[in-house]
Design a protein that fits this description.
Helix content is about 40%, strand content about 10%. By secondary structure, it is of the alpha+beta class. It starts with 9 loop residues before the first helix and ends with a helix. It holds the Pfam family HNH_2.
Length: about 500
Amino acid sequence: MAGRDPNLDFEAEFQKLVTLMRACFDREDPELKPTYRDCRSWAKSFTSNVRRNMASRDNNGWLGDNGEGDLTERFELVQKIRDTILNHEDIKEEDDMIEILQTKEVWAHLMVLSLPRLRTFLAEVQTNDDLIDTLDHAFPEMNSLVLLFRGPAEEWVKTGTISRSNAERIATARRDLGVCAFTGHLRGEKCHILPFWTLNRPRCSKALNAARAVFGQERSKILRKKLVNPQTNIVDTSRNMITLHPMLHKFWDHGLFGLEPVTLLYEEDKREELAIAGPSTPSKVASERPDEESGAPGSSRSARSGTKRGGDSSQITPSKKSKTTSEGKTKGKGKERDVELPQETKPTKEDGERARKAIGIRIRLHWLRRTMGLTPDNLPTNLAELWRTLSPWDDDYVVHDKDARPVDDGQIIDIFDTADAKAPDFDILQLQFDVFRIQALSGRADPIIYAPDWYYDDDGELVSDPVPGKEEAVREHEAREAREIQEAREAMQA
């Protein structure tokens, strides 16, 4: 990951490999001769162009909707929204409200919204005074979403005990064959996307309630139905589970990467997988490398028939024309994306007649570098400025697949339903992806700093003090922030 070793004699190493390979193929013992599988594995390794430095990409990476290029409109919309809020008559004279609403966390919440939702939200803050008055409470409460995915379980009050479903865990294991979806290792761990312990915590519901102002009514309604409604939630089902290598699981818990839901999959996509991979079990987790330079799937893996969704979960079935177009690629800056219909487009009767039942999902992994040295006064206004604030890549954050290659940024996998287990849910994955991007864009602070200044002790009694460990975490966070801001200023002056 650190680049070429200057002391490595590549010509000498090449000759060693040639000698070893020839000796291997010259073996006479049939039990020791290389097999077809050996040859395929070697060829795959030699043709790989996996980056050793996940910070080397020069495109928009994990920001932007399908088809976005340099994110110009996104940055402009976010700036207009912030200006509208901060200059509102009810806000501009209130120092405490300005202090809350100008933070990089608020900026990050806006940066990950879909373009259609950003456009709508701008119109809402420009015309709805009542909405403006709620935002100084909504945005801080939305920071609790980070705690939902990354915070310690013990700080949340329970409303009863809920047992895990062993049947769902077994069904998920069968769906994924017990194999990590991204590495192919057999040591896969069954992971909840939204942690199981959030299921019976009231503050989970409060965080989603607060997000309604920003996410929009429709998306919030869908998320509440799937995550907090006692009768309809799918938190402890296969739709909220994925199998990961233990090290990937650990890095995911730390928010070091996010899983982007790319598109829903249909029966013809599964037939294509079987044609590519050959006979398999009914539970098929298809894992392939993307085009290793672009981070996009190869032509045989493109989402030709997938249903796209925007960030507020409105579902669109592509028309014939759009489906034909999506077989090609729309290139952003250094990154290929599938073409997405505008969210305002209404499905035609013909589209409805062709509507099919989704039986799987395509997921893309993104390693997430965090920002450094951001203040309300130097928030990025374009992609170049954003890239200058991102931290260098830490060489310790690497996980190797079964072929001993690093799990690459932009790697694509497909997961299909089985008889007993559904594929991961699009909306839950999207929330996870948004939350992890929000935390990366705002500096990836210890999530406990977003905890409330009260908690329940072991006896269930309310304690009107900060959660244990929060004050220390806040002090460490402020010290790190001050150091990084000073380093950023010195770098600009150098």
